[in-house]
Amino acid sequence: MTKWKRFWVTRIYRIDGVLDEYRQAQLNRLGNQAFTGLAIYLLLISGGAVIGLLANGTPRWVALSLLGGDVLGVLLTNTWLKTQVTKLQLNQLDVTPTNVHGYLRLVRQRSLEEGISFAVFFWGVQVALDWPQTWQQIFWSGAAVKLLVLSLVEGFILWYVVYFQRRVAVEDALARTKRELE
Asked: How far is CA 68 from CA 18, 45, 55, 65, 162, in A?
């Protein structure tokens, strides 16, 4: 597996372990299904936005509903993918007592990356919702500081939840390995 493919498999599917050919084929099938479903969903949302614009909707309302529908579609697809990966047990960790600290360090790093990326994304969405204002008003007003603080708090909450969820998965994998060794 190439470096970039490994990077995207880790980020999108949250698979940290090694994949054999069978698991790789399952992952490719899931990716194809997710892409097809998301493409059809986004096409329908775009068609709904055009119909909304033609039905005397305001451009701001249409743009916000299109953005909201797109984000909802991506979140639903991501949730479906993670559920299927867990159901097919593609994300099983092989944790031994010697490499548990490495996995925990990896969990902290990946959780922090997700929290920061969520905070940046959420801040960008909030700025986009205030689009009619000029950029100078958005960035230099007191509202911009509130948006930034709110985004950072939400990113921290996401980091906290994801970190402990992944830490529990590492501890469960370590317990499973210890049971298998006994």
From this structure: 36, 10, 19, 5, 23
